[in-house]
Each structure stands twice: as structure tokens, then as C-alpha cells.
Amino acid sequence: MLLARGTALGLLPLLAASTTPGFAQAATEKEPAALAGYSTAASAAERGWESKFRALPSTDNLREYMRHLSARPHNVGSPYDKENAEWILAHFKEWGLDAEIETFYVLFPTPRERALELVAPTTFKAKLQEPPVAVDPTSNQQSEQLPTYNAYSIDGDVTAPLVYVNQGVRSDYEQLDRMGISVKGAIVIARYGGAWRGIKPKVAAEHGAVGCIIYSDPRDDGYSVGDTFPNGAYRPQDGVQRGAVTDTLYEGDPLTPGYGSTKDAKRLPIKDNPLITKIPVLPISYGDAQPLLAAIGGQAVPPAWRGGLPITYHVGPGPAKVHLRVESNWDIKPIYDVIARIPGSEFPGQWILRGNHHDAWVNGAEDPISGQVALLEEARSMGELVKQGWRPKRTIIFCAWDGEEPGLLGSTEWVETHQDELRKKAVMYVNSDSNGRGFLGVEGSHTLEHFINGVMRDVPDPETKLSVWKRSQLRAIANARNESRRQELRSRGDLHIEALGSGSDYTPFLDFAGIASMNLGFYGESGGGIYHSVYDDFYWYTHFGDTDFVYGRALAQVSGTALMRMADAELLPFGFHDFADTVHSYVGELKDYLKAQQTDVEETNKELDEGVFTAVVDPKKSSIPPPRKAVPPYLNFAPLENADAALTASALRYTRALSLAQGAGEFDPQPVARINELLIESERKLTTQAGLPGRPWFKHQIYAPGAYTGYGVKTLPAVREAMEQDKWKEADDQIPLVAKVLEDEAALIEQATSLLEASSKTASAK
Ligand SMILES: [Zn+2]
Questions:
Q1: Cα 380 to ligand 1 centroid, rounded to whole Å
Q2: Would you call 737 helix, strand, or coil by DSSP?
């Protein structure tokens, strides 16, 4: 379900410059520095195995796997979904991995009735159909295609005036309030974008709407951006984005929050389930949307709300009136997770996990198969290394998830089922979901930032022959806002990785179980508009995606190198200086936000007194001044600032101790075993049992998907979201709780540091 990303890799000012040379430099340097967490001898051996590994992934294999896995629609509950799971299982076994299918039973609604028609002032019946395209051989598999719909929309039959709400996020409704427009009793039509689609019906219902239509505007992924399919990569006029529209309270099967949906699990009733929308929702194409939008009258929309259709966009309500009917089959369906292991030789109870989903909305060549095929080549190549004598120190587990599209079902149910074991054993989870051409996008836990930068320096970009890292750094320089930022980027620290929100299978690992996680994928040079439509298929991908699969190979190389390097390290290569630095910036953002809010509210109230809002608008147009608000109170950030300082100090101490230990050239295994246990625990320490206020399933206190953004991350979410929702008392109450989490993390780092310092003394005494 991952949406095309807009990640920008930036740079953080670092306490210590990276010790790993860039790829280009590495080629000319005689002796590269030992890998972090490796003794000199072990590092050389590891580098040898890693380069053997990187030579193995084959673009021909990637293409053939994709051809097979995307040959037919393979949504949850379809015959081909099960067939694919069995095909993946057979391949894992053939490559020598210890593999099995784990089955769960989940609520998966499929469409029974869908109707949308304009009933006034003229009439029009929406097609709700994606027609076959002659040159595209799988676009005609209509009997197997899931019709266009939004899964987990409540059943409903409503007729009401239409209101255009732009992207349908909360700020759009503030704007509507200023225009004097209410959506109470109306059906809203929102364009895709701005937030995860599930937010749109949620916010619409909160404002009293009775129905919600979501459409793909050509401005966002259609002809305004590029040529449309099949002449180009972008969305044709009948292309529709399917997708789930649950609430954001928790992930996974709506009927089994927090525990696995095994066959006999206790289930919540479907009726009044908190994840199911409050109003009916249906996604449509711009072909179907245009007559509806053209029939809306009233005020013209604000400039930023204009789409790419050749009409004047109006807000309404009416005179356009529409009839919307949605009804689903509310069935429980089996889902098939394929899990394959390479057992660890020294620490089998420490797990390095790698996942990508295999289910799609339709044929899903890009989403998810372009990522899945990379995972498969990683597994095959590692199976090959095992035959050559390589044994990972830690257990590597490959996971081909089912049921990601409806709501991260396969991964969440698996994590919930195995949560106790995972909390003890999981070291790291690496996710991908789809892959294209361009730059490596990395989002993840900042304790892994330094580590993944090292991996990126060792993998070549397939088209420019720079390292993946170098290419990202140069682009960051090209996009830099000012000289000081360019300076920073050139002074060679690590490239900054973005924090994880939600939208793919890393969410249960990171947010529920507190496992250090990363999401990887190349993007930026193969855009398109076939997301979640029947046109996301082998024909599209081999004409407009990573057509020769060289970036698929690069993804396998980056991800596989990361798995091996983490699996074989003597001392786990977690780092804390990037993490502390990032948390410091988050604390600063909270303080800045409060200040900006206070200034804004004071200014607005002053302008209300002066009559600014009524004076500057056209008196013949309706415009309502913003509401007067109380100025936000000062908050006591001191506990957070003290915790931030403690974290920074402990991180600095750890970095120094690590560099000393590394300099000694070998590690004393006994203290290192205890340090590794602490490092594994370090991400768990960032969670609380109670979780976030109102969202207890989300336990991580540094990262969470926003309750009103879905994909977009909220950092230090307990405090930030309270502030953004004007809950100042709650924000003040949460600050010491979040501070305690950071203090505990700092204490853990201190403990690891003391052990590391002691071990260096032992090593140098030998
Ligand atoms: Zn996906």
C-alpha cells in the first residue's frame, strides 16, 4: 500500500564523521577501515562474503519472478494469492531455506453493490470500471479483478448535495468554515493526496457529512504530470485508486486488536467496529468525477484547491446532488504469510528480519511485486552463499506477507501472535514494498542511521556508477536551500534518514513491538499513475518502471548487505549519536511550534479586534473571520530538555567508547554478548506499555503515524499531537512521561558504554 514517496535525504550535523569511505574512494584505498562492530579479521572475511553476495542477484531472475507473480490478480482471498504463496514457499525451500506458511483469518470485505449517480441538476451514471487496454495483455482479466472500491467502507445508501472539500484534511474544513460552507448532511468529494485516504471519510464524518467520494485528479497523477497509460506512465481517465479506509486507532485485522487472528481467536463483532468508516466511501476516476464536479455551483474554490480538469472548480453545496450506494460482503478470509529462515550459527535466538508483502489490489507488478522480487533474490543468493560455506551468526528470517493492502494484516497478525518472542529476539526489521528507478529512499530508526549510510557507500548506483550514497549526497547538495546546508552536506557526515510513519509492514514491528526498523526503496525517476489500479502490471512495469531491473538488483544488494552485516557483527552496529541528534531536533521543533502557535493566536485575536478580516474581503462575497482562540499556555519543557541533554551526553560517551574498542582491533566476546542484549533492547525501551493517549496499540514514544495524516509521521507523538489538537493540558502531562522514556534510554546507553569501556581495558591488557 506504500504510496510513492517524497523522501529527501538531508544531512545532520554529526558528532563524529563517518569512518567508512565512499564507494568511489573505497576502490582506490588499499585497506578500508574495519566495519563497525567487527574485529579487523572478521571485517575482512565479512567484506569478502558481502561482495560474493552482491554479485549474485540477477536481473533476469527478477524479471521472471515478476512475470509469474503478477500474471493474474492476487488480492486477499483470490486463488492466485494462495498460488503465489505456495510458489514462494517452494522457491524458498528449493534455495535451502527452512520455510513454512503461517495462515491467519481476517475480515476482508469485498464489493457486493456499488452505485454512484448524479441526480440533479442533470443526470449522469458513473462507470466505476477500468476498461482493458489493447496493448496490455493482463488488463482484460476482468472476471478476476476486484472491482474499484475502498475496503472497510461501511454499507450505506445516501442521496445528498455534493460539496468539494479539496483533499478533505482538517485544514480544508477550517477553510470551508471561513467560506461559510458546512458539509452537514452533504456528500463530500475529495481528491486523493494530502493524507492517507482513510483520513478523508474520518474527517468528513466528524464534520457531519453522510457520504464520501475520493477521486484521482489529473493534477496529481494524470495528464497534468505526464502522458497517460498506455502512451505514458500516468493515470488514464478511467484509472481508479483502490485502497483501505479504516480509522487510525490500530493496525491489522479490525476484529482482533493486539492479538493474532488465528482460527479460533476471539473476535470483536463487525457491527460498530471502531476501524470501519462511519459513512460510505467510494473511489472514482477523473473520468467519472468530471461531470460531478462540473455540476457543483456556489463559490469558486481557493486557488490551491484547483485541480487539472478543464472546468471551473466550485465548492457547492449543490445544486449537484448525488446518490451513493455501497455494500460489501463481510467475509472472513484466510491469508498466507510465507516465512523462511536461515538459522544463525552462533546466536540463533537473535533475529534479523526482512519483509515485503506479496498480495496486491489487482496484478500489482510495482506494488508490491517489484519489492518482493528483490527479497526473493536476496533469499536465493544467501541460500547460494550457505552452499559455499557461509553461516550467518544470527538467524535471518524472510517474510513474504499477505494481506498488506487491506491494513497490514499479514505482518500485524504475525507480529501480534509472536510478540513475546519477537520482543526478546528481534534485532532489526528491514522492509520494502515497491521499487523504481532513481535514489534510495531510507526511512527508519535513527539508531540505524549510521549503519545504513555505511551500507549505501558500498553499493554502486547501477546507472551512474557512483555509490548509492554519493548519488544521494550530490542530489541533496543540488537541492540544498542555502550555503550553510551545502557546506554541511559536503563536510561528510551521514545522510539523514527520515522517520517512519505508516503505510507498510514495518508499522507493527516498530510501533507495536518496538523493533528497530527500516524501509528501503529506489524512487524519483520512474513516477506514474497506476497505483492500485488494474494497470499496475507487468506491461506497465517493463515499459515505464525499472524496465531492465537494475534497480531491483541494487535494492537486493543494499538490503542483503544490510542483513548480512547486522547478522554477522560481533558487536551490533547500532549507533546513538545520530539518534540523540535527531531527538534533539524534535524537542526543538516542539518548542518552536508552541512559540509559533502563541504568536499566531495573539496576532489573529489582534486582527479580529482591528476588524482586519472584514475590511480586506470583498463585501459581496461571504467570508467568516476565524474564531477567537485562547492563547496557548507556556508548557514546562524542562523534563524533556534534561532528558535530551542526558541522551546527548550518553550517546557521545558511547560513540567514544565504541571508537576506542574498534581501535583495539578485536572484541572480548563475553562483555560484548551483554552489550548486544542491551542494544537489542534499546528500541524496545522507546515504547511504553500504555502506548499513546487514545491509541494504546501504538507504543513507540518517538515515532507514530499521525492520527490525522496516516502516512505522515508524528515524532514525539504523545506531546506533538496533543499540541496540534490544542490539548495543552494533555501535552503538559505527557512531557514528563516522554522524558522518562528518554532518561531510561540514556541509562541503557550508559550501561552499554560502561561495559564497552571495561572490555576495551581488558582487550588492551591482553
Ligand atoms: Zn504495497
A1: 22
A2: helix
